[in-house]
From TrEMBL:
Keywords: Aminotransferase, Transferase. InterPro entries: Aminotrans_V_dom, PyrdxlP-dep_Trfase, PyrdxlP-dep_Trfase_major, PyrdxlP-dep_Trfase_small. SUPFAM superfamilies: PLP-dependent transferases. The keyword Transferase applies. The keyword Transcription regulation does not apply. It comes from the Bacteria. Residues 56-371 form the Aminotransferase class V domain. GO terms for molecular function: transaminase activity. This is Aminotransferase class V-fold PLP-dependent enzyme.
Length: 389
């Protein structure tokens, strides 16, 4: 599928300046997203505040609809928020912890997830962490053992940010529902790079945003809430966009919207909405299945090159359960990241104890080999950064 890369590479001009292998931190800026942001600025200048009625509300509606199509949901099940933390705060404020105090998470989840409920321990919430035996995955048996009649919510990642492991959303959701609990998945490292079907998986809440694999940059997050659940949840973290009749500006009565807008807060960052629409448009045009197939090719190549060079990438045996994140254990990852950028103009990232590399459909096999060769040279120059024994 090299033809896919060759066709789309020019859409991302930053790739001509650096060897960029860090999409799991921030997706590359496309020409389309840059043009879309300029369009937003032009509309701002031309219409001023009336741009809301002329075009901006329609752009927000289109963003909800695009994300809904991407995850096989309906537009009225999608709320738009500024980031995952705010979205989680809205959900966390919707739950009653008196009868069901427990929230089940894993030690592999991004800290934003546990922080929401650790901060609510005074409200009665209790966080239960599931360990990972291999720093790659968390077995389903751990979820089965932890979830019970006191569990309010299972909140975890679709793809783990430090291993690339793809969790079985269908199985985790079924375990939660067996005990009357809800399932929530942070899909920031999933949506865009792997197929997502929230209906088939029977997920209650799913979140993702433009920052990474959806190629839209920071400032906008989408939250799916299952239709049958929408009117059951009444968040206390809210804002004027959550009102059923928001443009009536009635300070005395707060009637929550009947659709997923009830989970929204304040005025959205419209530049981010325009960028996100353009990014999702690229993913739609290519097709998630094609994005997934090409990224899998690149991951397999990278893992093979790393192993041939003597590295031990931390990946599962079955790469079908793996997303576009490859972790390479090292003694001093931040120093290696800096050296790769300074000496070879290669952009990757570090997480505790490991180098984090994330190829995407716009990368090439040559870039992966260049990275591995450069990594070998740097480690030979600086023995202190070698792989831990």
């Amino acid at each position: 599928m090299r033809a896919l890369t060759d066709r789309w590479r020019d859409e991302f001009p930053g790739l001509s300046h650096t060897t960029y292998l860090n999409t799991c931190s921030l997706g590359q800026l496309s020409r389309r997203s840059r043009t879309a942001v300029y369009q937003f600025l032009e509309l701002w200048m031309r219409y001023g505040a009336s741009a809301w009625y002329e075009t901006w509300t329609g752009e927000v509606a289109e963003a909800r609809a695009r994300f809904a199509r991407l995850i096989h949901a309906q537009p009225h099940e999608v709320a738009l928020l500024p980031n995952i933390s705010v979205a989680l705060s809205v959900i966390a404020s919707s739950l009653d912890y008196r009868q069901r105090p427990e929230v089940v998470l894993t030690e592999m989840d991004f800290p934003t997830l546990p922080y929401q409920w650790l901060a609510r321990e005074r409200e009665g919430a209790r966080v239960r962490f599931l360990p990972s035996p291999d720093r790659i995955s968390v077995p389903l048996t751990a979820f089965a053992d932890a979830i019970g009649p006191q569990t309010a919510l299972v909140a975890t990642s679709h793809v783990f940010f430090t291993s690339g492991w793809i969790q079985d959303m269908t199985a985790v959701s079924a375990l939660a529902h067996m005990h009357g609990a809800l399932s929530l998945f942070d899909g920031y490292q999933a949506a865009g790079q792997i197929p997502v079907d929230v209906k088939a998986a029977d997920v209650d809440i799913y979140l993702s945003g433009g920052l990474k694999w959806l190629l839209g940059g920071p400032g906008v997050v989408f939250m799916y809430v299952k239709e049958s659940l929408i009117e059951r949840l009444e968040p206390t973290t809210t804002g004027w966009f959550a009102s059923e009749n928001m443009f009536q500006f009635d300070p005395y009565h707060f009637d929550r919207a009947r659709d997923a807008r009830r989970f929204e807060t304040g005025t959205p960052a419209m530049a981010a909405v325009y960028a996100a629409n353009a990014g999702m448009g690229i993913i739609e045009e290519i097709g998630v299945d094609s994005v997934r197939a090409r990224t899998q090719e690149l991951v397999a190549t990278l893992v093979g090159e790393l192993r041939a060079a003597g590295f031990q990438p931390r990946v599962p045996d079955d790469l079908e359960r793996h997303g576009g994140i490859v972790m390479v254990p090292l003694a001093d990852p931040p120093s290696v990241v800096q050296a790769l950028a300074r000496q070879y103009n290669i952009i990757v990232d570090a997480r505790p104890g490991a180098l984090r590399i994330s190829p995407y459909f716009y990368n090439t096999e040559e870039e992966l080999r260049y990275l591995v060769d450069s990594l070998v040279t740097i480690l030979a120059q600086s023995p202190s950064t070698q792989q831990p024994s």
